[in-house]
Amino acid sequence: MAEVYHYQPSPPSSAGAMQIAMSGERTPTSVSSRRSTTPGSFYKADTPEFEQRGGGSGSSTGVKRWKRLHEQQTMEQLSSLRHEKKESILIAKQKARETARKISVELLAKEWLSENQATVEIRAYLVDKLLPTLILGVEKLLTVVDFQELADKDRSANFNPLNFLAQYLLRNNPKYSNFAEASPYVRGIRQVSEDLRMQLFNMEDNRLAKIKADVKRRRTEREYQQHLTQLEKIRRSNCLLTQFTEWNVAVDGRVELSLFQNALRSFNEVAEHFPEELKRVSRLGHSLEPTDETGITLTLNEFVKYMNTYIENLPREVFEQFMVHMSKCAAAYRASAEREQRRIYLSNLFMRCDHSGIALLDRHRILNLFEQYWDQMKNDQNCKGLRNPRQWPVVEVDEADDSVGDDEEEDEPSTQQTTEEVARESQQEQPQPPPASEESAQKTLDENKDLKEEVDTETKEEQKVEVEDDKTEENQTQEPKVVETAETPQDAADGQQEIKQEVKDGEIQNGEVKDPEVKEAEGKDAESKEEVKDGEAKDAEVKDGEVKEAEVKDGEVKEVEVNEADVKEAEVKEAEVKEATPEKKEIADLEKEKNETKKATDTGSGTDTVKPVKPKSALKVEREEAVGQTGRISVTFAEGTTFNREKTGLTLTSRSQSQMSAFDENSLNVSQFVQLTETFLGDEPVKDVFTRLLKFIKDGYEETEDEKMDRLTKARREAVSAKRKSMIDVLFEKWDNDGSGYLDLEEVESVMAKYKDGQEVEAIYYAKEEMKKKSRFQDQRLSKREFRMLIQLVVQEIPGSETFDSLLEFLTNSVERSYSDRIRGEARKKWLQQIVTAAETGGASMEPVYRAVFQALYKDAEAHGGGKKISANISMSERNVKFPQRGETCLRYVAATPEDADYVLDKILYNDMKGVSFAALESGKPIHVPRVGNHGNIHFWNTRRRPEEREGSFIVIPLKDKRKRAFGLLGIDTIADPHTKAIFITHEIQFFQGIAKAFSIAYHHVDMRRKLLRITESAVSWIQRRSPHVREVVEYMAEPDSKGMDYVLRKMLTTVPKGPPEYCAKPPRLERKDNLFRDYLFKCVDNSETVTADAYGERHLAFPLRDDDGKAIALVDISIGDMKKLPPHENKEIQRMLRILQMAHKEITKEFNGAEKMRILEGEQDDEARTDIMFDRLMLMELRDNVSKLDQQAYAELRSYKDPPQNICDILKATLAIFFLDKAEEGEFDDWIRIKTYINIDLSQKITAYDPTAQKDLNLPADKIELYMKDVPHGEVAKHGSLPGQYMYNWVFVCLSLIEHMKKMRQNEDEGVSSDAVGDKEEDVNMDDQQKTEAE
């Protein structure tokens, strides 16, 4: 770039101008031209440069050149100005011409400029794209029409206006022609189009502004909602922070995670009862995780974070409900902690009262003590919470004393107080969070002074425990082990040797052992006292086996410490005793028994008392607590002996989860005693009342020496019987290697005949004959029970105390199996057990059982059947009511393998059809057809199979019940197997028999549960009708869990607000770990006792339904809402219903165990109908019995009325209308004088003899009789005090219920016959096709 030097401007001189020195690289003109194009600017900018470079002189040539350049620039500027002016003039002229040519827009075009904003886009499109050409085409069309005068003509054959217009539009397409632009209308349209575009643009601009405003508004609302959400989160976090303190927080400030998981899980159950609009929005944030079982605990912040993940999306109203629910769960947890402290004291009390040391107390004596305490304290104001020990639920429903009237029950306080009010009162009394468990435990200890002094005294003393044998040590552990079914030969020999010493010269009758030593000890009181003294003198030497109990220091429990050296010395002494002669052994054992009995009498209980300790989790203590206590055993038992844990429990606290205690009306174990006492104490017992009750029971419970010896003898008999039963069962399982479930009698007899080289053949023969007399269902096969009976009878026939051991040892050695046979047998027994397990865990469904049966057959065919391809089906025997001419019974196929399901399932096989099935059903023996193609009497359901394809083997095995009656068939075939030789061999047939046996057990288990459900449904329906204050009734059934360690509850039946009870389509499973706040359900099953508890603010009554052994197999959970107690008449009705329901359950279980069925009414001839009406029949029988006990005086009271209450008149009218309906319709019973003539003993006889299920009474119009009873409320009947009136009232309703049942069943049968007749016609057609195929 050229450099420019600036000086002060001065006039140029001629000399200086001539002396300008210019370089070729620097051109002042070029520089100045870039700066300015005017002469003035040139002088100002360029003159100094010339002066600097050229000085003040120059030649004339330079001046001329400068002038020339200047003129050149000036001319260029003038020419550019002239050109610009010319262009502007041309533009102005063009605009003028355009203005002159411009024509105003026509009115027709202006019509498109309407103010309707909604159609702007459409009008803009039409004006721009369509109208310019279309309007001209229409104009041209009209011009032609006018020119040819076609408007006046009807129609011209040579002119079509549509074709003309179409041709015009095609010829003047805007893409290829601009002819339309010449029209003034089109030019106006173009102007309108421009205006419409501007209008559309302005409108779009407004829309964008609106969108922006709307977005801003929504953003503001969103930010406001986020602010509110944040405030709500803070509020909820504060609520959770406050709620956390309601739980019994440990010292380290942590609470178990499982408690909160249970609270969340239970909230889902509570939400099911919300209104429909809240139920939809009450779902938690995400699905619940499995309940923690590892003991994880949460701090305060962890708790808030954990709960927020589930409840952050809950609406405010639902969140408030959730916090109320959490408060209820926390209150339940605090109550459980206090209850657990009481349970520890009650467990210690139990051990003090257990003088005999077998962990059983006399139930009647405990109830008697409760009655005495009640009589003494019922007027005390602090004892108002105690429950009457003569009434349910303290005693059983069939033991309750009905002498207490309704008025007396109504006078009891707090009847109308609800559980919510009690909760509010307790919160007002205790505004601060409850103390920790350790503090409450210490407080309880301070208040129970008497008990504490005894505890401290006994804790300081060292208790003496004799370590006599290994089994005694096992009985002293925290959780006794179950009797093992398999033992080593050495252990079995040791146990047998001890049994010989204990039961020498004893007799076995009906499975029990009579011990002559006990009788001798009972008969010699004087010798007993002297020997007891000697035993006391020897106590100093028995310190070798002492065990130090847990000592309580600062609320912590130390583990039990056992002196190993002392134990070794005790074992040495025990070995010395074993080596002694039998006479010395008997003397030593008897001395030990008497010495220990004396010790137990002197010391009271012989056990230490453990002080209350804060549990890890009060609600999980039944599963996790290990107390670490040992009890003094006051009797010596044989080595290897165990007690029946259903009858005894040697732990101080609750037993294992999987252990269910059987109810015994005469005895209580520790768990049952604790639960019974808690029921007697009520909901919130006063601590002073609780302390006095402990002392009262401890001082009042006493046993005589005879009672102690009786208990010891009974325990010994049970132990020896259990030991022998286990040994015989092991032998049976070893003998029955293939799992058929039966042993051949002749084989067993032939093996027994070799015992002692045939010297005991006569004794074995007499035992067999005796067994046949005692067994009602004897054939040539022995079940496990019959085999056990045979062994015991043989032992009784052969003299000698060692007969049992030697006989079992001989039989065990005689049935040794090879290794391969044992492996095969173990696998098969595992598969058979899976069939039974499927029934126990299937929720009363047969589908899992069918699946397990077919899977077992498939696995065995693959593993032990040479890979056979088998097909199987199961058929059930039914009474043929549709076509009796074809046989009394028929077989209906209920299950089949997939390849045969289309041909076999739901088909019926009649007796007049081909087949060997009915022969097997009638004989009760399996029938094996090795070659079905050669047999000629086989019915083939698959008619498509050709005769040459009908090869293979076929076997049918009868399915038998406990009375050995066939109720169905199991069919197995190999027709689909491609092998030419697919014949079943012996061990396969035996396994198939085991399959049939296992299926029979499973089928009857499921069938029994189904029948129990139907009976319970009837009972629940009656409860709904008679107890309107009952909010909900649910039935649960207990079944083993998948691991076999515990049991679970299945929700099978539930009530609905309006309507009959409903079955759960998919019964949910309730596990103990997931229902800590509903543990009353599991306590009810554990102890087989009625439990009353509060759950989620509602009062619940859990009633167990027991089997024949006294174990709870189901329970009925009755919820009465927020009421604390039902009205007296409703409470009595529920007791009556539950009592009858328990009777029905016992009757059903006895029938499934082989008892005869009771058929009293005419309608009970059919088994299905019998199950449906069993509950009503039991009610009818009870009412018959009550009416039969009424005497003349009871009826005289009714006749003494001059003007009886209307309710009594209506009841008598309904009763008489059942017998004299015509007279009732004629109005004869409207007069009280005439009614009185029928009130006598004859009416009582009619009532007791009436059968409402008889065919002749089914036509009785029940609706007419109900009219008499519609105005009689149930609660008002009992208030009149008339027993005949109450009995007749209930009797009428039961009769009407039975009549309705029978009518419905008759109607269902008729519908079933009509529907099956169509199916039978189709079946006959298929049979004809089959016969044609066979003929071909």
Give a topology summary.
Layout lengths: L13 H5 L9 H8 L3 H16 L5 H42 L5 H4 L9 H28 L13 H11 L12 H61 L10 E2 H15 L4 H6 L15 E2 L1 H12 L4 H38 L7 E2 H15 L28 H5 L8 H11 L7 H11 L1 H12 L9 H6 L13 H14 L4 E3 L2 E3 L1 H8 L1 H13 L9 E2 L3 E2 L2 E2 L3 E2 L1 H16 L2 H22 L17 H4 L42 E2 L1 H12 L5 H14 L4 H31 L7 E2 H8 L8 H14 L6 E2 L1 H14 L5 H12 L4 H22 L6 H17 L7 E9 L9 E8 L1 H7 L3 E2 L7 H7 L3 E3 L2 H4 L18 E7 L5 E8 L12 H41 L5 E9 L6 E8 L7 E2 L5 E2 L8 H9 L3 E5 L2 E9 L5 E8 L8 H25 L14 H22 L3 H8 L6 H14 L1 H6 L5 H5 L4 H9 L12 H8 L4 H4 L5 H53 L1
Antiparallel strand pairs: 1-2, 3-10, 4-5, 6-9, 7-8, 11-12, 13-14, 13-18, 14-15, 16-17, 17-18, 19-20, 19-25, 20-21, 20-22, 23-24, 24-25
Helix pairs in contact: 2-3, 6-7, 6-8, 8-11, 8-12, 9-12, 12-25, 12-26, 13-26, 21-23, 27-30, 29-30, 32-33, 32-37, 33-37, 37-39, 37-40, 39-40, 40-45, 40-48, 42-46, 42-48, 46-48
Overview in brief:
The chain has 1336 residues and is an alpha+beta fold. A hairpin with a 5-residue loop joins β24 (1098-1106) and β25 (1112-1119).
If you had to describe this structure to a student in words, what would you say it looks like?
The chain is α+β, with helices and mostly antiparallel strands and 1336 residues long. The protein is built from 48 helices and 25 strands. The strands form 8 sheets. Strands 19, 20, 21, 22, 23, 24 and 25 form a 7-stranded antiparallel sheet that branches. Strands 15-14-13-18-17-16 form a 6-stranded antiparallel sheet, sandwiched between helices. A two-stranded antiparallel sheet has the order 1-2. A hairpin with a 6-residue loop joins strand 19 (1032-1040) and strand 20 (1047-1054). Helix 6 crosses helix 7 (161-171), helix 12 (316-353) packs parallel to helix 26 (687-700) and helix 37 packs across helix 40. The radius of gyration is 51 Å and the shape is elongated. 33% of the residues are buried.
